[in-house]
């Protein structure tokens, strides 16, 4: 089956053509059993008489129910909830100097990809808007085999060594006695663990920042996290860090908003991605790399092998080398998004690992987990997982084997099969691990170069704008406020104090306890890197004090586009049609979507008798599902004062720092029907109907995403 597409050179739709082999469509077809027997009655089971018992011989009922009984597979232990999409990657410029990976050498190849975004802690059915890291896993179907870049939207990790991963996940998931809470880190076991693991402090800063509550999966960065290697044709190695930069910029929602979205639409991110692709607004990211020569391995004041550290862009700039476009939704969630199996160990010649002890542990875990989740060593044969490169080996059999390997030879070396399949020399594309020299004692210890747990947490915190710093303090106050054990709160304050005294004091104030003077040594020998006490956490002086790239609001790559943003139009019968039309057209021209909200579905009639189609009612719509609000003019608009949801709509928009625009009679609604007492620069008004200047300034304002300055006024 697979052999048919093995010589395929045009990679761009290579994977889609491969999947075609398995796609099915029941259109204009008879309903059949799995054995192909046409079914005559799909409504009634076979019974002994009209009111009698069902008969065991009813093979149609038995087949249907048995299949149903076995429909579920174990959800992922972590990253259970996800959304997938197909697309392609194209290279801007060859990376030949650094890597021999074909898809990073040849700018004319478009490599098909499948991406799965996920939350980490929650179960499959949990909310999209949990405060959590997001998984960002990309499967490249290259002509030399599959390369999986299994990253996150945060560039560092909580722990340095794979040995601690099961502990971390046990701590963050619902507590084992009652499985509470779902998809939330705000509970005792998580913060107990964190408070005993100072190495987590850098990642804690990221997760308490707004990065953990993205506006959209399309508006978040992605990172490979670990340092990998590029290896070129001359067998020279460079260290490499991978970055994905979203074309729409990196944006977040407010925490209160996130909690409300979870109630209004817990599929908010999944739906947003689906609709964007469905309507042709294909999300796009650029791939960037930070390349570090081998000779610079020890140049920095952190260890490149330590996954709790990033390489500041100010020290090693990110070079943009290509772009990824997601242009097709999956046909079937289970077959594709659920069954896709990622593995950081899926690499191709030209890419290799480093000795990062977290990465090394992952290399074991991912095949193992697929065996239990997908149930067979043949998971590589599942359509979404199979390579579009030629694949031949002597692995045989196992549950659900699809391949029919012909011939009697299934071993190597052999003479009966002419030695086939044969090994590839390096210049024939054979994979050879980078021949790094290792000369060492076997030890169970960490390198002293891993013992600085605070410098980059400080760098991250100091690089944030005051608004972002406030959000971190608020998030910590929320999370630690939910912790019941006072000693855990105190230990956390001790750690926070090492990051920033002001931050610790703010959180302490909210918790109603003082920042402890000395951090108390936990009684269970859990202090970070080395339980043996060889390397106490130390603070190393950072060579840089600030990195704008770490702040979402200062990030130089931030985009001001309002493409795909959803703007709510609060309307009623008797609205002014020109007011609606002018703003709608202006927004649409800028790529945004105007959503007409009214007391009922169908159409409303404007002042001049125009029928305006309604998209949503006030019973369904909520401010948290939109990026901005416009209240048009028109005599009938005063009707909005009588609709209680309108008041909540405007107040939520205001409290979540969204931009609000109103025209003519619409202004009165803001004045009389909301808590907005003072005019602020984020509330834009005009007495003129269809005011071009208002439309332009509203669009410009929406490009800033939020008017965070308002928080100081609230
Ligand atoms: Fe994973 N991780 N992980 N992880 N991870 C899984 O594999 C694991 C880590 C990441 O959409 C599991 O197929 C260990 C870092 C993503 O299908 C499992 C360690 C990063 C996804 C697993 C880590 C990740 C996973 C669960 C520490 C960012 C979802 C299901 C040694 C670079 C992929 C599965 C998808 C999934 C193990 C740490 C990212 C159990 C042991 C660091 C995006 O194998």
Structure notes:
It is a single chain. With 714 residues, this protein is α/β, with parallel strands linked by helices. It has a domain at 566-713: Rossmann fold, CATH 3.40.50. Helices cover 25% and strands 15% of the residues. The protein contains 17 helices and 18 strands. The protein has helices spanning 14-20, 59-69, 165-172, 188-195, 201-208, 255-264, 268-278, 333-338, 357-374, 455-463, 466-481, 486-499, 501-511, 577-589, 644-655, 665-672, 692-702, and strands at residues 82-91, 110-119, 134-142, 145-152, 222-223, 228-231, 237-246, 284-293, 319-328, 351-352, 566-570, 593-598, 603-605, 611-613, 616-617, 628-631, 659-663, 683-686. The strands form 3 sheets. Strands 1, 2, 3, 4, 5, 6, 7, 8, 9 and 10 form a 10-stranded antiparallel beta sheet that branches. It has a 6-stranded parallel beta sheet with strand order 15-12-11-16-17-18, with helices on both faces. A two-stranded antiparallel sheet has the order 13-14. α5 runs parallel beside α10, α12 (486-499) runs antiparallel to α13 (501-511) and α14 crosses α17 (692-702). Residues 1-8 and 523-530 have low confidence and may be disordered. Bound molecules: CIS-heme D hydroxychlorin gamma-spirolactone 17R, 18S (HDE). CIS-heme D hydroxychlorin gamma-spirolactone 17R, 18S is lined by residues 76-79, 82, 116, 118, 135, 137, 150-152, 157, 162, 165, 225, 307, 340-342, 358, 361-362, 365-366, 369-370. Keywords: Heme, Hydrogen peroxide, Iron, Metal-binding, Oxidoreductase, Peroxidase. This is Catalase. Residues 1-48 are annotated as: Disordered. It catalyses: 2 H2O2 = O2 + 2 H2O. Heme binds at residues 76, 116, 165, 362, 366, 373.
């Amino acid at each position: 089956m697979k052999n048919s597409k093995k010589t395929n050179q045009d990679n761009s739709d290579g994977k889609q053509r491969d999947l075609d082999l398995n796609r099915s469509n029941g259109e204009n077809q008879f309903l059949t059993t799995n054995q192909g027997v046409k079914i005559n009655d799909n409504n009634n089971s076979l019974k002994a008489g009209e009111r009698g018992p069902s008969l065991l011989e009813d093979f149609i009922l038995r087949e249907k129910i048995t299949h149903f009984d076995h429909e579920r597979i174990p959800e992922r232990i972590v990253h259970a909830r996800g959304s997938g999409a197909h697309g392609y990657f194209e290279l801007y410029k060859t990376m030949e100097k650094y890597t021999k990976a074909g898809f990073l050498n040849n700018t004319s190849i478009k490599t098909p990809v499948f991406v799965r975004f996920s939350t980490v802690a929650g179960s499959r059915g949990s909310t999209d808007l949990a405060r959590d890291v997001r998984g960002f896993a990309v499967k490249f179907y290259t002509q030399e085999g599959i390369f999986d870049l299994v990253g996150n939207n945060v560039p560092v990790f909580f722990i340095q060594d794979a040995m601690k991963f099961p502990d971390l996940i046990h701590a963050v998931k619902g507590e084992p006695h009652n499985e509470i809470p779902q998809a939330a880190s705000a509970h005792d076991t998580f913060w107990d663990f964190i408070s005993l693991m100072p190495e987590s402090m850098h990642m804690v800063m990221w997760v308490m920042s707004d990065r953990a509550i993205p506006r959209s999966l399309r508006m978040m960065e992605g990172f490979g996290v670990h340092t990998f290697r590029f290896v070129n044709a001359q067998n020279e190695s460079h260290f490499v860090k991978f970055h994905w930069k979203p074309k729409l910029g990196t944006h977040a929602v407010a925490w209160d908003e996130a909690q409300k979205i979870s109630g209004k639409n817990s599929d908010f991110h999944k739906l947003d991605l689906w609709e964007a692709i469905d309507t042709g607004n294909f999300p796009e990211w650029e791939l960037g790399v930070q390349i570090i020569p081998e000779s610079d391995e020890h140049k920095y004041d952190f260890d490149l092998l330590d996954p709790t550290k990033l390489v500041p862009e100010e020290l090693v700039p990110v070079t943009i080398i290509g772009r990824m476009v997601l242009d097709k939704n999956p046909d079937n969630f289970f077959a594709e998004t659920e069954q896709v199996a990622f593995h950081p160990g899926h690499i191709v010649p030209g890419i290799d690992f480093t000795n990062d002890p977290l990465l090394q542990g992952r290399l074991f875990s991912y095949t193992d987990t697929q065996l239990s989740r997908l149930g067979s060593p043949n998971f590589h044969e599942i359509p979404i997982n199979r390579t579009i490169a030629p694949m031949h080996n002597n692995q045989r059999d196992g549950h659900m084997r699809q391949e029919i390997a012909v011939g009697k030879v299934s071993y190597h070396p052999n003479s009966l099969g002419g030695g086939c399949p044969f090994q590839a020399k390096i210049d024939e594309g054979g994979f050879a691990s980078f021949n790094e020299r290792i000369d060492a004692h076997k030890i169970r210890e960490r390198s002293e170069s891993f013992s600085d747990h605070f410098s980059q947490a400080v760098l991250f915190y100091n690089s944030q704008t005051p608004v972002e710093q406030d959000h971190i303090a608020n998030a910590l106050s929320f999370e630690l406020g939910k912790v019941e054990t006072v000693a855990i709160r105190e230990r956390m304050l001790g750690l926070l104090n090492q990051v920033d005294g002001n931050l610790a004091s703010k959180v302490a104030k909210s918790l109603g306890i003082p920042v402890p003077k000395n951090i108390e040594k936990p009684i269970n020998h859990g202090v970070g890197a080395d339980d043996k006490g060889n390397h106490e956490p130390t603070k190393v002086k950072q060579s840089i004090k600030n990195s704008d790239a770490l702040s979402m609001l200062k990030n130089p790559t931030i985009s001001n586009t309002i493409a795909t943003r959803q703007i709510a139009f609060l309307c009623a019968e008797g609205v002014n049609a020109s007011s609606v039309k002018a703003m709608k057209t202006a927004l649409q021209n800028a790529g945004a979507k105007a959503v007409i909200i009214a007391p009922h579905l169908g159409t409303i009639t404007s002042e001049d008798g125009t029928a305006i189609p309604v998209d949503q009612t006030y019973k369904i719509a909520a401010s948290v599902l939109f990026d901005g609000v416009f209240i048009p003019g028109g005599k009938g608009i005063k009707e909005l004062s009588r609709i209680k949801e309108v008041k909540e709509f405007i107040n939520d928009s205001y409290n979540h720092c969204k931009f609000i625009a109103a025209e003519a009679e619409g202004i009165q609604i803001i004045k009389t029907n909301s808590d907005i007492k003072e005019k602020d620069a984020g509330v834009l008004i005009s007495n003129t109907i269809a005011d071009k200047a208002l439309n332009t300034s509203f669009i410009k304002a929406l490009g800033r995403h939020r008017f965070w300055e308002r928080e100081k006024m609230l």
